[in-house]
Amino acid sequence: MRKLILTLAIVALAFTLVPSRASATGLWFDPLEQLYDVGDTLTIDLYADIDEADAIFGFGFDLSFDGGASYISGPGDSGSYLTFTGFAHNSAHFQYDLIFPPLWDDGDTIAGEVPWGNDDVWGTDILLGTFYFDAPSSGPLGVENIYLSPAAGDYGMFGEEGLLGAIALMPNNPTASATPIPEPATVFLLGSAALIGFVGSRRRFRKR
Question: Which helix (H) or strand (E) holds 158?
């Protein structure tokens, strides 16, 4: 009987110590990786799991193409390859008034607030909004990295950005990447190398 009680106690303790996705606050992009071509428009959704204790009345973030070394000032700013064209909040939970934007928005439009009188938002798989990017219409393409965080000076009790509730919270810095579709010549070379390898392996197999 003692062994059974001890086993049950250990199992209960393990469940309380191991954080589950449903009970932890965090942010992530979807998709994490995607391919793009010349002239494409790309979209990346921003999701959050928000613990009930961290329920939010708004959010605000800054976008960086270089891992936080610098941040964009607003739509029209570019990284090495992609241009940020806008952010659309999830209107099912949040609003963004162009005339009276949220006080914590610094002009980049990556923000939203719960309408006055509505309950604070929490739960799993909460879509905060969608980022839009344009690929160049010509010229070389390359890997573009997307990074999200408040810039220095924008995070805290008065410059607040992050997930905003009883406190300003930035639980993690989500990242995503966009990779150009390989050029036909590259695809041909890779396919040729794979075919040559396949033929060589069949010849060795026949000799055996």
Answer: none
Q: What residues form DSSP beta bridges with 140?
A: none
Q: Where do we find the tokens 């300003």?
A: 168
Q: Smallest Cα–Cα separation from 180: which of 140, 147, 129?
A: 140
Q: Are 176 and 146 in contact (CB under 8 A)?
A: yes
> Do the strands 33-36 and 175-180 form a parallel or antiparallel pair, or are they unpaired?
parallel
* Whole-number Å distance between alpha carbons of 5 and 9: 6
For the record, the structure tokens of 124 come out as 């799993």
Strands, sheet with 144-149, edge to edge from the N-terminal-most edge strand? 33-36, 175-180, 144-149, 62-64
Write out the chain's pLDDT in tens, 208 residues: 555 444 444 434 343 333 444 458 999 999 999 999 999 999 999 999 999 999 999 999 999 999 999 999 999 999 999 999 999 999 999 999 989 999 999 999 999 999 999 999 999 999 999 999 999 999 899 999 999 999 988 887 677 899 999 999 999 999 999 999 997 643 333 444 444 454 455 555 555 5
- The Cα–Cα gap between 66 and 27 comes to 19
Which tokens hold the place of 90?
């999830």
C-alpha 197/C-alpha 22 separation (Å) is: 47
Q: Are 60 and 149 in contact (CB under 8 A)?
A: no
The answer, as to whether pTM is greater than 0.90, is: no
Q: Does domain 25-192 have CATH number 3.40.1390.10?
A: no
- Please enumerate in sequence order all residues whose Cβ is within 8 A of that of 3, keeping only pairs 6 or more positions apart, or say none: none
